[in-house]
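Revision sheet: structure tokens.
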Amino acid sequence: MSQMIASLTEEHKRMAKLLSLLDQEITRFKEGNVLDYDLISAILEYLTRSSEFKHHQAEDEIYKWLKIRDPEGACEIGDIHIEHEKLAFLCDAFREAVSNVEQDSELPRIWLVSVADEYCTAYKNHLRLEETFLFPLARKTLSHNDWQDVEEHVIRERDPEFDRLEHEDLDDLRQDILTWHDAGFTQ
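Predicted:
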């Protein structure tokens, strides 16, 4: 139990750091600077891949068990699966907006900024929702056997070698983003 939530919480910290970098880049763009398309794309790739790589699956499974064990509590949280779908939709819209600007489409800066702000705000609110409500309720409500079922469902039919390689690749991508940003390669 605590290991899965600890792992999800650590991933949230990594996501929050990259969202902060995204905010910084969008602020620079708002101020009239050129958008660092490669940095934005790399951050969106990391956020998308890390979410698709077991993260949202684990949270969805936790939520499924909460709906069984504490329907009222789960109802107060809202539907985590729908939240995940909303984030994917907003990410696609943001990616498309960045692509349009990169291709020199004549679009107002404020349009891209508003799409980016909506995505970042929704993502941060989502992380806060999970950490403030989902995780504490799961810790309190789910039994040891429930946690075993959650873990079994999350790892069922997964290829351990693929998981290891994907985890390493995501770590490398995140480190590249941080190094790239810290080294001042953004304009």
